[in-house]
Design goal:
Length: 564
């Protein structure tokens, strides 16, 4: 049985949101050949794996997370020959590919759903259909089977008049939840992972995979939106284990996206002894700026809560033999420097961008870099709702107004919370469309691409990009980062997050690290300074720190790593 730290401790994953990465043919949409063209850039950064978001046949209602056929490629993204070329060229550079499997639901355009709509009982049993009351009609369908809400707003049930049935969709109405209790569905999905495994991929990311097992008995949720009934559901571990065993995935790099999950469940999902996945994404640390847990109610980030969440996940997962995927952002999240830092001056922006990188790359687990994060890309600050593309943002712009917000208030909230914040095109250079496309980009590009871009940063040793490259190479040469235990410290300020990594008998490099991160724009006391003088500064985003009456004081947005 392999220890996760041995398997994954020195690895770094880079996430590509294909639609926004690089457009090779001028249609304004990123594509597979666009990725191939940029492999040398990724090699230069030093990453090991690329997680590529879905490029399968899809009507693109949710930008590819609505899959119509798991085995064919959506023409706007390329062809199978393009994919094989990408796999070959990545492999030649020692980079592995991880594909994104959206198995909780399919698009309603999928042939399975279309056959279900035609009344075929075999395919009706592929989804979560529930009979409507006799006499229900399109005009008056009556009450849905439960009061559960879709994560994109509105009921989680859609009525189909021709069948007089409802079907479950935890996301958009065009994303119908599969019925994993049906062994035929599970077999189909095993065939899909085998299909891609045989084409030479190194691993997989499984979309919202902790939502696949729904309860037998469907009931109203009088406390919430229904998630407590299907999150980490009754058979989820059994189904994942079966997928991994039958698909031949044990030993590959596999990461599950776990919505509203628990440490206890994530230990089971990721510890080697359970033969499920190799790592998990959890999101609790990204809710510390939700007011009362509501994504659509703004609050300033609560750094004390952030610290406590990271501490319990880092220490709890380690104690149980689990393994965390480490991340601040992805295609569903705002940019972390805009969100947890300050991008209003150049110095604050640079420090904030490097601060979030430092903490992510020094924790125990596998760091993920979301495209553009290594450049310090920021939220775009769109000025009008017309600039937004995401189905969730557009739905909530309406819902917030239905709840009584003015259009201006709704826009301000969307501006902070929209998934489009992370979906603007990769900033390759200073030219008109940032080197992303020669055509018209499908979504707007932040004006700061004139200075925040790969071309300028790759050649500048002081850039955010160069700092990220150093973080990656530090992990590769430092066993205590790869495998050391982790222990959070009580910092002297609630704006400072501090933790320690230790590895007795480290075969090379330091045996102990102390990581100190000031998540504020003012000076903050970090920890007692005795002993620090004997350590050396392994990496820091600024030298702006000093000793004051036995205390180490960090300047604004400073991150520093001491080593012994
Ligand atoms: O996201 C799952 C998910 O629940 C969230 O990240 C979601 O976007 C957010 O909580 C809504 O407030 C995954 C994919 O990453 C996302 O892009 C897809 O839209 C979603 O699944 C459905 O496939
Ligand atoms: Ca294209």
């Amino acid at each position: 049985m392999q220890d996760r730290a041995e398997q994954l401790g020195d690895k770094v994953v880079y996430q590509i949101y294909i639609r926004s990465f690089n457009d090779s043919n001028g249609d304004g949409i990123g594509d597979i050949r666009g990725i191939t063209q940029r492999l040398d850039y990724l090699k230069g950064l030093g990453v090991d794996y690329l997680w590529i978001t879905p490029f399968f046949s899809s009507p693109q209602v949710d930008n590819g997370y609505d899959v119509a056929d798991y085995r064919t490629i959506e023409p706007m993204y390329g062809t199978m020959a393009d994919f094989d070329e990408l796999a070959r060229e990545a492999g030649a550079r020692g980079i592995g590919l991880m594909l994104d499997m959206v198995f909780n639901h399919t698009s309603t355009s999928h042939a399975w759903f279309q056959r279900a709509l035609a009344g075929d009982p075999k395919y009706l049993a592929y989804y979560k259909f529930v009979d409507a009351a006799p006499g229900a009609s399109a005009k008056d369908p009556g009450e849905p089977p439960t009061n559960w809400l879709s994560k994109f707003g509105g009921s989680a049930w859609e009525y189909v008049p021709s069948l007089n049935k409802w079907y479950l969709h935890l996301f958009d109405t065009s994303q119908a939840d599969l019925n994993w209790d049906n062994p035929e569905v599970r077999r189909e999905l095993v065939d899909v992972v085998r299909f891609w495994k045989d084409r030479g991929v190194s691993g997989f990311r499984f979309d919202v995979v902790n939502l696949i097992s729904k309860p037998d008995h469907l009931e109203d949720d009088d406390e919430g939106d229904g998630r407590r009934f299907y999150t980490d559901g009754p058979h989820v571990h059994e189904y994942i284990r079966e997928l991994v065993r039958e698909g031949g995935l044990d030993g590959m790099v596999t990461v599950g996206e776990m919505s509203s999950t628990s440490i206890e469940n994530c230990i089971r999902y990721s510890a080697p002894r359970y033969h499920e996945l190799s790592q998990t994404f959890s999101f609790h640390h990204l809710k510390v700026d939700y007011r009362d847990g509501d994504k659509w109610a703004l609050a300033e980030p609560n750094i004390a809560a952030l610290r406590d969440t990271l501490a319990s996940w880092q220490e709890g997962m380690t104690a149980g033999g689990g393994w965390n995927a480490l991340f601040w952002s992805n295609h569903d999240q705002p940019r972390p420097n805009s969100r947890f830092g300050d991008c209003s001056s150049e110095e604050a922006w640079r420090r904030s961008s490097e601060l979030v990188g430092t903490i992510n790359h020094l924790m125990r687990g596998t760091p993920y870099i979301y495209q553009g994060e290594e450049l310090g890309m920021t939220d775009p600050g769109f000025a009008s709702i017309d600039e937004y593309r995401d189905v969730e943002s557009l739905n909530y712009y309406q819902i917030l107004q239905d709840e009584g917000k003015t259009p201006g208030e709704a826009l301000r909230i969307i501006g902070r919370r929209s998934r489009d914040n992370g979906r603007t095109p990769m900033q390759w250079d200073e030219s008109k469309h940032a080197g992303f496309t020669t055509g018209t980009p499908w979504i707007g590009i932040p004006s700061n691409h004139t200075t925040v871009n790969a071309k300028a940063e790759v050649r500048d040793p002081e850039s955010v990009w160069s700092y990220y490259r150093r973080l990656i190479s530090l992990r590769k040469e430092t066993p205590v980062i790869q495998r050391g235990s982790v222990h959070f410290l009580d910092a002297l300020s609630d704006k400072v997050i501090a933790f320690e990594r230790t590895l007795d008998d480290a075969p090379s490099g330091p045996a102990r690290l102390v990581v100190l991160c000031n998540f504020s724009g003012t000076r903050q006391p970090a920890i007692a300074s005795d002993g620090l003088a004997e350590g050396s500064l392994l990496i820091a985003n600024a030298r702006d720190m000093h000793e004051e009456e036995g205390t180490l004081v960090l300047g604004p947005w400073v991150a520093a790593v001491f080593a012994w």
